[in-house]
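Subgroup meeting minutes
Present: P.N., E.W., G.H.
Scribe: E.W.

1. P.N. recapped why we're keeping a running log of single-chain structure predictions: easier to compare across weeks, and new members can see raw inputs and outputs side by side.
2. G.H. added today's entry (224 aa).
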Amino acid sequence: MFQSIYSSTVTPAQFFLMAAVTLAVGLAFSWLMSFRIRSTKRFFLVTTLLPLIVASVITFVNGNIGAGVAIGGAFGLIRFRSAQGSADELAAILITMGGGIAFGMGFLGYGTVLMLGLGLLYFLIAALPLFSHSREDETLMLRVTVPENLEYGAAFDETFARYCKSVERAGVKTTGMGSMFRLSYRVRLLDPRAEKAFIDELRTRNGNLEISLLPDAQNTNTQL
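Output recorded in log:
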């Protein structure tokens, strides 16, 4: 079970056996991950078929270095044509590719254990409150709209000192055809439960204009 089914040459029977097992395991893995990942049906179709695609490529290359380099370059181009996904989706794709490599080398047992084992492990770890404490100190992106006549340089310093553990200016831009400014800050709150009081005090200082406080998912690429 944990030995390669391939001999020196791959026969049609061996290839179709590999394809059937890979497709079945890919479907089971995608079904399992659908309980933890919020994504579209198309994503789970991709994770179902991706192990078979990778396994087929590995089978066809079969020691041909030139073909392997060419296919690797072609796969590298796909990254620049793909929308950025979540960390959960990236983990699922990496697991399916790892399983596909094992299947492509004929190790059906290892491929099955790798994909279903990692899928189950991911499911169990995600269900445990192991890293819940990290959200208590998460960085938030604060956007405050102010009128153009407000000297905003130190307008909110007192509020920040009262409610924030750290504050970093992320940028400023004009909005409303230049009649207002939108200020962006990365902040960490002293007490996440004081979020409403923090926003209410900001509203008294910016003339009750628009304020948003969102998770800063991309610290280095957040639009103003």
